[in-house]
Specification:
This protein is mainly alpha-helical and about 290 residues long. It has helices spanning about 5-25, 35-55, 60-65, 70-95, 95-105, 105-120, 125-140, 155-170, 180-205, 215-245, 245-250, 255-270, 275-290.
């Protein structure tokens, strides 16, 4: 236990996660969502393999994979395969400021899903927090206009569906007692296998997916996403949570990420940050904070 080190690792993770919305949009200039996901997932798989090799934990890894291959086959299908494909498709449709803000509501979605799946009850305070967060989503989606014809409902729907997939992944994980890094390795191992299948099916559908003619910008962007959205950053966050003496203090740092992300989106992508995005994102963060109290 070392709270100072925990804060250092958590801040490093938060800063890296703050860059990924911008990285997604830059990568999608050169890659399709499926291409981006495939490069990123294999990069993450290699990252976890290196970490496990350094820690000399392969015996533990093989035991986990042998005993629970069906569980991780399902988990790998949800994350990274389905979740990130839907999320990248949402980023392909929406401005980065909209997609990243809506993506932060996954904790609200998880609380809603916990009612039927875990038989939990919602309090009046939790319902109010959810209403606040989804009011923020509505404001971001519509830009404060009542002319709904201008709203990209396909992109908004994809972003909201991604929160459903991510929340489902974590709900299924609630009773998983396996250590995090071996568990993530098997999720990404199975997920990479699913992605190979998706690519084969997409190629047979004449979608033109070709990994031999990709630009170097696209390849490096995909590697960056694999390292700093999925791989190294997950490890930094897990390390922070393990070292923390006060986990609430650590988890609060995550609320810095979307606002730092907006600064990068403005300066690097050149998106004009709408006042409705700032207000909507603030409502989402207030709702999330109230929910975790």
């Amino acid at each position: 236990m070392d709270q100072r080190k925990a804060i250092f690792y958590a801040l490093a993770a938060v800063l890296l996660w703050s860059t990924v919305a911008t990285a997604f949009k830059l990568a999608l200039r050169y890659l399709t969502p499926l291409q981006l996901l495939t490069i990123a997932a294999f990069t993450s798989l290699l990252t976890f393999a290196v970490i496990l090799s350094v820690q000399q934990r392969w015996r533990e890894v093989w035991q986990v994979g042998r005993e629970r291959f069906g569980f991780y086959a399902l988990q790998g299908f949800i994350n990274p395969a389905a979740y990130y494909w839907v999320l990248f498709a949402a980023y392909n449709q929406l401005p980065a400021q909209q997609a990243q803000a809506i993506n932060y509501t996954w904790a609200i979605t998880m609380s809603l899903l916990a009612v039927p799946f875990l038989h939990q009850k919602l309090t009046a305070k939790e319902l109010f927090a959810m209403l606040l967060a989804y009011a923020g989503v509505f404001l971001i989606a519509t830009g404060g206009n009542w002319d709904f014809a201008q709203t990209n409902w396909i992109g908004i729907g994809l972003a909201l569906f991604s929160t459903l997939l991510w929340a489902s992944y974590w709900l299924i994980n609630t009773k998983n007692t396996d250590k995090p890094v071996p568990a993530l390795f098997w999720c990404f191992a199975w997920g990479s296998g699913w992605l190979v299948l998706f690519n084969l099916l997409s190629s047979s559908a004449d979608s033109g997916i070709n990994y031999f003619n990709l630009s170097w910008q696209g390849i490096w962007a995909g590697i960056y996403v694999g390292l700093f959205e999925m791989g190294i950053t997950f490890f930094l966050w897990l390390t922070a949570m393990r070292l923390a003496t006060k986990t609430a203090q650590i988890s609060t740092l995550i609320f810095l990420s979307p606002f730092i992300s907006l600064i990068l989106i403005y300066f690097i992508l050149g998106e004009t940050i709408q006042i409705t995005t700032l207000i909507g994102l603030s409502l989402i963060c207030v709702g999330l904070y109230r929910l975790r109290e």
